[in-house]
Amino acid sequence: MFAIYDIQGLRFRDTLEKLRQVQQPSATARLQLHSNVAEDETPVVSGSASSKADMALSSQAQQAYRDMLHLNQREPIVHAQQLMSHPVSTIPMEMDILAARRYFQQQKFQQMPVVNTSNRLVGMLSVQDLLQFILIDGERMHYLRGKKVSDAMSSGVITADPISDIRRVARLMQEYHLHGVPIVDQQDILLGIVSQSDILRAVTNEPPLNMWS
Fold it and tell me: Can you give the pTM of this predicted structure?
């Protein structure tokens, strides 16, 4: 399952196919992901949200899922929670732009999820987002005063559930040109983030994760 969060909170939660209907993917997407995962969704496991995040699927359920996706025994089922980086560094929406730039330099990240005063996800902020607030005066460069993270962030951030198949997450990133996907549970709690580098590590593991045709 995938969701969209903005400054008002949760705006959408459903399958990747429904997501495409409410927010169109980029028309320039070029990579072709494995055709077997084009129209399938990760099965929902019963139980509490915390148990879903921690519980592995039974061997019988895993086999049923492989059969559904036409995967062979060598191709592992990998969920977002297995690859995500956590705990995830976040940045408050009320932080001013200059402080945000310094924070990025300290954390050495290119993007971070943005949270409100209740620590709920409201957007994403990248180093590139901050560049629009730079002023150049002769040889001096400085950031606009009075601007906050909320002015620079990208709202309508797309997230994935912790048990989303990583192939689906990769397809999402490819179609929407995302550098990272926050992982959020059914209680809207930010658990981690899956980045492009996390995907690449999964692809290069042995046995390899078959993701592209």
Answer: 0.75
